[in-house]
Please model this.
Amino acid sequence: MNNSLSVSRFSSISRLVTHIFLIGICFIWMYPFLWMVASSFKSDAEFFENGLSIIPSSFNFSNITRAWETANFSQYFLNTLIITASVVLIVLISTSACGYALGRFSFPGKKVIYVLLVSSMFIPLEFSIIPIVALINALGLSNTMIGVILAESGGGHVMLVLMFAGFFSQIPKEMEESATMDGCGFIRTFIHVMLPLSKPIIGSTIIMQVIFTWNSFLIPLILTLSNPSIRPLSVGLYAFQGENIVDWTGIAAGATISVLPVIIIFFFLQKYFVEGISGAVKG
Amino acid sequence: MSNTETTLNKQSALNSKKKNKKNIAFWCWMFVLPNMILFILFQLWPIVSSWFYAMSNWNGLSSSIEFIGLANFKELVQDKYFWNAFKNVFIYSFGSVPFQLILGLLFAVILNNPKLKFASVYRTFIFLPVITSAAIIGIIMSFIWSSDGAVNYLLMQIGLLDTPIDFLGSMTWAMPTVIMVSIWMSTGINMIFWLAGLQGIPKELYEAAYMDGAGHIRTFFSITLPLLVPIGAVILLFNVAFSLRAFDLIKTLTDGGPFFATDVVSTYIYSAAFAGEIGQPRMGYGSAAGVFFGFTIVFLMLFIQYLRNKVKANSHV
Model:
């Protein structure tokens, strides 16, 4: 009796210690974000006096409007939106179609494609950046939005293709046969029968690619070097910091504009994202 | 099917099946084509043409490319700044990967407890840096770690420091600081990887172990850890590959400074090929560095893979 009481007391203490530890960890992990959002609402005077606090004394929107209107963040935001939406669309169409053909049919050349894609998995794309830039230049697309979109859509997308192929290979044959009976051709079966079934994979693909493209830096940095008007947010903020090194409230406002949309999307769709990246190590 | 079916009908059905097969092969090719074009243009061709650029003295602007053989590679292996960047990227990798693996595992084990309240809230917060642009994290962290930032304030409050340290401007502190920021940034994704591994371990194993009187720590070392080894090898591979190609965070946090103290291979290539700080941009020379380091990474990956197979083979004996 006495013994079981002390055990339960021990477990409630250890539970408390666990929560205190986790709250401390979460504070360390959240502080930079809280500081960023708070600083974007502080006046210069408040930032100078109380630069580290994470609760602004009042909600002063002047930094946000300054970043949005005078520092071109409205343009950067629009650019990021266009680039991200286009890349996601291109990647979604190309990977789902490729995964469907590879996962569901046997056709001449299939093995070669598999071997090529899988063996490319560990070849680092980052060190191919020079030929990619040279290719975009050769296509006459340097310093254009289309060039940025194309370069960011590039690659074999092995993970996504394998995810789609794995999913489509598990759908029972009858689904297809009944669609063929109803007079659906290859493309219509894919669009009207198969794609709607693959909603979870589409969800993971969209959210992973949105976050990946929204945050990309190296390719747009190089491809927009001489055309600032097509910069996305990450490159725009880097340039802004370079020109206004002491304007921390402005930098914080720009960072908040850049980061918040992804965080909001993530909060709503994190299930798909977590499933997607877990699949990468399980497979 | 009617019973009036004849051999003739069967024959035509066979023919149409053959035609159908050809038709399907055609559509399959049409379906893989877009992805394969993106793959060939932006992954296969760059690998092939890197070699060509690496043996030229192209500046990226002029249309004439002069072939200079292995001169770029020769210059590269004699450049002490290249070896400095080469050394730095391994310091960065070996300094950050073990910590982000261990911390990620620690958080995963704690949060995997189904009875823990708010586990998903904690998980979301720790994961937040993963979905944030590394470039923007670098910019924000350059204030947090500055003389006026929160880290110095905290260290002075608890009495560890008398005067603030300029972490990112100090030759001694810059690299450790970059490593710490990187650990902070990447622990979340490792936590999710480990959680995926933990969820694959059958619950019955733990129940049996607790029945036998094993404690939490005992079960962790004799059940959890051995069963996580296979997925752990994949996670290690991911981490090493990602850390060796780090660019965004370092570019915005320190830009390789102060005086090349945090210059890594990717920032080295960037300054050689695009920035042209020392005269003309040198795409050819940058490509040579890319080819050289790309090979280093591939060899390292193959080596880890080899070790992994060896461990696997041993565990079966």
